[in-house]
Design brief:
This protein is an alpha/beta fold. The chain contains eight helices and eleven strands. Strands 1, 2, 3, 4, 5, 6, 7, 8, 9, 10 and 11 form an eleven-stranded mixed sheet that branches. A hairpin with a 6-residue loop joins strand 10 and strand 11. Helix 1 packs across helix 6. It is globular, with a radius of gyration of 16 Å.
Length: 204
């Protein structure tokens, strides 16, 4: 099922439909400021486990990431020191994943690693979904192989054709990107770029 959304002025009923899918434990594919991603309600462990199976992710070994609407919601789900807070505030919204200590409100599956990736994309569609959901969105990029045609990662109709049977709804937010986020590890209070992606970190 493909649902077309725009950067601004979307029908509230369309957004509510997406939120209802997430609240029911469903999975969506949706745009971010980097690549299209698979997402679910970040506090529903069964939905998170479903995504882990699709991506063949071991939650005990791999970082899991969530999208939050604003800095206030980030502080609810992750442990932030003052320096990290200031760094994130200068760079978000933007194409970054900040690795932080997992907060106590996150499900047990996150506590296996004691860390969580935090995203606040510069993309109004994904952030508006998170705002209306009033909860984080667990997020991961689409599964892909280097042999895959890039259009199957960037074109909503082709994404729906290839991955639509894995999820409950595909959000068409236009042509997506192919460059991943920049990962910044901040758990020990010092910021370290562990993967350079689309984001150029300011005041690093």
């Amino acid at each position: 099922m493909l649902l077309k959304l725009y950067e601004k002025n979307n029908n509230p009923n369309d957004l509510q439909r997406i939120v209802d899918v997430l609240n029911d434990g469903g999975l969506i594919i949706y745009p971010t400021d980097t690549m299209y991603a698979i997402g679910c309600h970040g506090l529903k462990e069964r939905a998170i486990e479903r995504i882990c199976r699709i991506k063949d992710i071991d939650a005990k070994k791999n970082h899991l990431s969530i999208i939050c609407y604003d800095m206030s919601s980030i502080s609810e789900y992750a442990k932030l020191d003052n320096n990290t807070f200031k760094l994130m505030k200068r760079n978000l919204p933007g194409p970054f994943t900040f690795i932080l200590g997992a907060g106590s409100r996150l499900p047990k599956i996150f506590k296996n690693r004691k860390e969580v990736g935090i995203r606040m994309p510069d993309n109004d569609i994904s952030r508006e979904i998170a705002r209306m959901l009033d909860a984080p969105i667990m997020t991961t990029t689409l599964p892909y192989n280097v042999k895959d045609d890039v259009e199957y990662l960037t074109t909503p109709e082709l994404i729906e054709e290839k991955f639509g049977n894995m999820v409950d709804l595909v959000v068409d937010g236009g042509i997506g990107g192919i460059e991943p986020s920049t990962i910044v590890y901040c758990v020990d209070g010092e910021a370290e770029i562990t993967r350079q992606g689309k984001g150029i970190l300011q005041d690093f």
